[in-house]
Amino acid sequence: MKNKIKNKIFNPFLHFFKNESSSGLILLSFAIIAIIIANSSFATTYNNILHTYITIGYKEFSLSMSVLHWINDGLMAIFFLVVGMEIKQEVVFGELQSFKKTILPISAAIGGMIVPAIIYALFNYNKPTISGWGIPMATDIAFAIGILSLVGRKAPKGIIIFLTALAIVDDLGAIIVIAIFYTSQISWIALIIGLIVFTCLILANRFKVKYTSVFIIGGIFLWVCLLKSGIHATIAGVLLGISLPVGKNIHEFKSSILYRLEHALTPLSSFVIMPIFALANSGITIDINSIGAIILTPVSFGIIFGLVIGKQIGIFGVSYILVKLKVAKLPSQVTKRHLYGASVLAGIGFTMSLFVSSLSFADETVLTTAKISIMIASIVSAILGTIIFKLIKLKSEK
């Protein structure tokens, strides 16, 4: 009887926290809260908190960063660790296991990164703001899958798998771009030490070390090394994720370190870290009188057209060509309409786009313009994607 009562109480919560749509909803809520705070009498307090410095450690063995940097460089490393674990899981056992099976989402993701970057570059050619070309390349998996689960209830499973695989490849592409193009001056000593630590983690996996603490401690050392090297510290999360033991088969996977860590950290990443990130990075002061001027800037045009139009052209265009040439085929029960709807939803950049924008611009005015543009583009993509899937649903019901 007690178990039945417990199940009735806890199961809805467990279902909620496992649902990507709830993650996207919470993320959106915290972004709205941040905007409200930034445009209220608490704005000064909000900014003071974000720029308060926190020191961890002692004397020369200490790290001192602002709250905002601890969130973007520290907490987001855990988010990237989860991304790294998802990538490894998909490569070893999932949708990215077979190249033939994944040529469509992989190619679509590449198209969906290149075209938006080109569109942004065209609008910002020969301007200092060209550095933001990586902003419209990203897709926010939580929002995109969340919208799809809400409006595409009768959508075939194949389109959900396609969009998920696409977003994972998209994340991997964004990580590579951050590591190569959004890196400050490199400290080669710190980088070499970091590579030695990463090699040790790979060897620990190779020699079947079963202590999770070994990988966590190694991951912390790797994070510090990359932070000191000039390469963005969040890359340490990805490297740790792909170094974790995953087992040789699905049975071993269920008892692996990667499986245990992924199940422990995914709720933390989705429902704590990402909302905190949104709260810290979405707080933009909006002047209604200057919105028009902001939207009419090259940065805004590049981001909005890149995400809303570029993603559609890149993802749907590449997919259509590959299917037409019979190089790839659509997943089971998936139509071109479903594919187009998914390519529109991929224009929801939000989390990763905000993250790249914080690396791209030091100027506060340009950064605010970028953030507003990301939100506008993500909202437009979400609305258009919703309409498309609603129309598909209505047509299938006739």
Automatic annotation (TrEMBL):
Annotated compartments: Cell inner membrane; Cell membrane
InterPro entries registered for this protein in UniProt: Na/H_antiporter_dom_sf, NhaA
Recorded catalytic activity of this chain's protein: Na(+)(in) + 2 H(+)(out) = Na(+)(out) + 2 H(+)(in)
Molecular function GO labels: sodium:proton antiporter activity
GO cellular component: plasma membrane
Biological process annotations from GO: regulation of pH
Membrane topology: Multi-pass membrane protein
Predominant cellular place of this UniProt entry's protein: membrane
Residues passing through the membrane, by range: 21-43, 63-83, 103-123, 135-152, 159-182, 188-207, 214-244, 339-360, 372-392
Keyword field: Antiport, Cell membrane, Ion transport, Membrane, Sodium, Sodium transport, Transmembrane, Transmembrane helix, Transport
Keyword Ion transport: yes
Domain of life: Bacteria
Role summary: Na(+)/H(+) antiporter that extrudes sodium in exchange for external protons.
Protein family: Belongs to the NhaA Na(+)/H(+) (TC 2.A.33) antiporter family.
Name of the protein in question: Na(+)/H(+) antiporter NhaA
Species, as recorded: Clostridium puniceum
